[in-house]
From TrEMBL:
UniProt cross-references to HAMAP family, sorted A to Z: PdxT (MF_01615)
Enzyme active site: 79 (nucleophile), 203 (charge relay system), 205 (charge relay system)
Stretch list, region Disordered: 166-185
EC number: 3.5.1.2
Pfam families: SNO (PF01174)
InterPro entries: Class_I_gatase-like, PdxT/SNO, PdxT/SNO_CS
Name by which UniProt lists this protein: glutaminase
UniProt keywords, alphabetically: Glutamine amidotransferase, Hydrolase, Lyase
Catalytic activity: L-glutamine + H2O = L-glutamate + NH4(+)
UniProt binding sites for L-glutamine: 47-49, 109, 143-144
UniProt GO molecular function: glutaminase activity; lyase activity
Main enzyme class: hydrolase
Basic and acidic residues composition-biased segments: 175-185
Species of the source: Flemingia macrophylla
Length: 237
């Protein structure tokens, strides 16, 4: 069974822990490298990625976080957490920030603009639609949100969002909401999965809808089960 850690340096870690509790799963606050050994899976929450990176550096967390991801353990980054997990981030101030990496993506840190350009949108997420029915879409809360501009071949796109092509070719200026002219419409990626890594540019922990948390817990249990059954295979003699 998954034991889910939540990186608790800054940002919306309490909200993630509350969402897990609603599913009957205990979330463990992670602030020190050794605490990562007590969990099977990890959520890196939204917040402010530069501040989070400074705190992670202060607590010497980067080597253990990288090891956790590279070992194939389940990790989910939301918003600033997604930026942390990307191999490359653009749209940063000079000098940039440390990243954990692992996700073969280029992320624009503030693609959707500043706090006042935050918005909510219904996203089509086929992966979350249950066979027994239920909602067809997920309401994404985007707060100073990043977007994925490029994703490698191993990355599965779980949701995207329409923007103007013009906006994409000039991704350093703040976005206006959807384009007025559908002919010029393009898309950015806002949710992905690459093996053990899940990334969302929005904040599922700020909604009452726990489907993303269920998805992550299920994904964690599958990965744990796979790892334990492969380690049970007797060594060839
Ligand atoms: N764009 C923010 C950053 O750079 C992330 C915003 C968020 O997590 N809500 O950290």
């Amino acid at each position: 069974m998954a034991v889910v850690g939540v990186l608790a340096l800054q940002g919306s870690f309490n909200e993630h822990i509350a969402a897990l509790r609603r599913l009957g799963v205990k979330g463990v606050e992670i602030r020190k490298p050794e605490q990562l050994q007590t969990v099977t899976s990890l959520i890196i929450p939204g917040g402010e990625s530069t501040t989070m990176a400074k705190l992670a550096e202060y607590h010497d967390l980067f080597p253990s976080l990288r090891e956790f991801v590279q070992m194939g353990k389940p990790v989910w980054g939301t918003c600033a957490g997604l930026i942390f997990l990307a191999n490359k981030a653009v749209g940063q101030k000079a000098g940039g920030q440390h990243l954990v990496g692992g996700l073969d993506c280029t992320v624009h840190r503030n693609f959707f603009g500043s706090q006042i350009q935050s918005f909510e949108a219904e996203l089509s997420v086929p992966e979350l639609v249950s066979k027994e029915g239920g909602p067809e879409t997920f309401r994404g809360i985007f707060i100073r949100a990043p977007a994925i501009l490029e994703a490698g071949p191993e990355v599965k796109v779980l949701a995207d969002y329409p923007v103007s092509s013009n906006r994409l070719s000039n991704s350093d200026s703040p976005i206006e909401d959807k384009t007025e002219n559908p002919e010029e419409e393009s898309k950015v990626i806002v949710a992905v999965r690459q093996g053990n890594i899940l990334g969302t540019a929005f904040h599922p922990e700020l909604t009452a809808d726990t489907r993303w948390h269920s998805y992550f817990v299920k994904m964690s249990n599958e990965i744990i089960e796979e790892a334990s059954s492969s380690s049970l295979v007797p060594a060839q003699v």
